[in-house]
Amino acid sequence: MKTQKKYVSSAFILLLTSVIVKIIGAVYKIPLTAFIGAVGRGYFAAAYNIYLPLHAVLMGALPVSLSRLVSKYNALGDKRMLSSLRKGSRFVFFAAGMLGVCVIVVAAVPYSMYIAHAPKSVYTVFVIAPSLLFSCLSASLRGYFEGYMNMKPTAVSQTLEALVKTVFGLLFSKYTMYRLFGEYSAVGTVFRIPFKNESDALSFIYPLTSAAAMLGVTLGALEGYVYVVIYYMINRDKLFPTQREETEGASFSLFHFR
Fold it and tell me: Residue 140: which residues within 8 A CB-CB, separation 6 or more?
């Protein structure tokens, strides 16, 4: 009965988080279009079209597999295997994230030119690439926690990602448009490059404002990863008392922690 209640509670938390993230995303799109324009939204969408399939493949398979394995060996009481999974998942998810980033970076130019037919979307594609690595690193811990039916790190990190993406994406895009178009309005140049008319100037500005908005997405993914790392570091002994490690001489960095 206790396990059933925990399962229902976990499912409810994920459902509620999904609704919150969807609402934040819907609110985000309205002012974003005002700041980067319909053309900028096109560049934004083009970047997502190459990013989302890779993200779906990595996030759809690896975290689920990890959580199932953790749940299995936790039920069996195999502490050694649980420790191995925790350590091994770091390398696997980091390697998968780096592979995804490399694929996006290498494919950015040909994709923008020949598939999206929007060469200027390449800036936005480059900016979103690192978020795939941060998402994979987050998933290496989320999946582990989910194996223990602890959905709090997943719920909070996903909400933080959406909030940071919205706040900073809108701020960056608005500031970029304000500064660049403000320069054109004042002296007829953007980055000291002269433009004959407003249409040409906006054609140059929109890809940059779109990339600035996408920077919010990458920062959101980074914030989500930072949160799950901090949550793990603070709660590891309480959550996993049977897996304590010697802390003497321990080191911490973005990609390695004990």
Answer: 63, 66, 89, 90, 92, 93, 94
